[in-house]
């Protein structure tokens, strides 16, 4: 075959004949598969969950925010999925989109990434691009991925190409997609960066190259650490305002009128999702290995972790004011996903709130239009397991208190305010809805 590996792979990328393999078909991997399919590439997905494979190969989606029609169209174009890592040899590009949780000691757990890499290693071949998108600590790509690839006799930068490009997926965000969200990418070598940039340039309007995989890894951690610390700041401000008897939402809205030097963040019941609660701790762990304490990360983490208990305390105080004990009271929690209008439960603070309430003897139920059931999976707190109840006027009236934890757009907050006896509003969702019977619905917030 004429030419070198880089030129051959670039040719296939540029004429869109390169077959894209995506390992891990979750909230990041599935949208990425669809993006490449819609850009005209042949796509093959890999996952160990046969349920996901069956869904995709029959043209169906398993996420609320991704319609069946989008998956069906991609399947008609030839997109396929498999559980067999041996088919990695059929691809020109392998993109790894795997979970990177923390273990019980809040240290990085790369077992999903390394396990999947070990599965595809025997089938890697020259003229192939390998990309890691999973959020991880600085140094992972070159220290953990590169040596394993080269143990197969493949030289990174000449035989195969290795890059890190952090995912910036925001499930349910209708404004920003892969196409209009700039894509950061770092390569192990300049040739790796060139190949990776050419690939991602086919599905996004702007590729942002950086000098190394470590710089790209750190970019993602900075993004989410920035958010974590600022959310911690406004969560602490909520507790400060509560002590001072000031409405924190009024203060935030007034501050947000400043056209420079301020960025609006809002408080809530805690941090959720797979990124913000976890990613900064990857950086904190890495820096501990270098004998440096990341003080702001640690403090913001403490504040954000306290929020579920803070809101349960607010509920208890409000019930006491109404002459009712917390134990034995009936509480309806509205929304359990980690953010509005999606079905993602990962690290949702609602799970801890449900568990806290259950352990305190509360008769707790929940309603979430996107989460029909919370199942026991070995990670979910036992007190959070249950089935969503119907959103009815009777359910609202029957509860001693209704607690708004996730502010889904489809929930009628006017009904909440006018039928609930007491509302604990962690998201300020009811701010624009005045109860017609104030004695029956009191909105409590920080």
Structure overview:
There is one protein chain. The protein is of the alpha/beta class. The chain has two domains: 207 residues, Rossmann fold (3-Layer(aba) Sandwich), CATH 3.40.50; 166 residues, NAD(P)-binding Rossmann-like Domain (Rossmann fold, 3-Layer(aba) Sandwich), CATH 3.40.50. Helices cover 38% and strands 13% of the residues. The chain has 14 helices and 15 strands. It has an eight-stranded mixed β-sheet with strand order 3-2-1-4-5-6-7-8, sandwiched between helices. A five-stranded parallel β-sheet has the order 10-9-13-14-15. Helix 8 packs across helix 10, helix 8 runs parallel beside helix 11 and helix 11 packs across helix 12.
Topology, pairings included?
Layout (H helix, E strand, L loop, with lengths): L4 H10 L5 E4 L5 H10 L4 E4 L3 H8 L10 H9 L3 E3 L10 E4 L14 H10 L7 E5 L7 H11 L9 E5 L18 E5 L2 H11 L6 E4 L2 H32 L3 H8 L23 H10 L6 H27 L8 E5 L14 H11 L3 E5 L5 E2 L11 E2 L5 H6 L2 E4 L8 H7 L2 E4 L16 E3 L2
Parallel strand pairs: 1-2, 1-4, 2-3, 4-5, 5-6, 7-8, 9-10, 9-13, 13-14, 14-15
Antiparallel strand pairs: 6-7, 11-12
Helix pairs in contact: 1-7, 8-10, 8-11, 11-12
What descriptors fit this protein?
alpha/beta, 38% helix, globular, Rossmann fold, 2 domains, single chain, 446 residues, five-stranded parallel beta sheet, eight-stranded mixed beta sheet
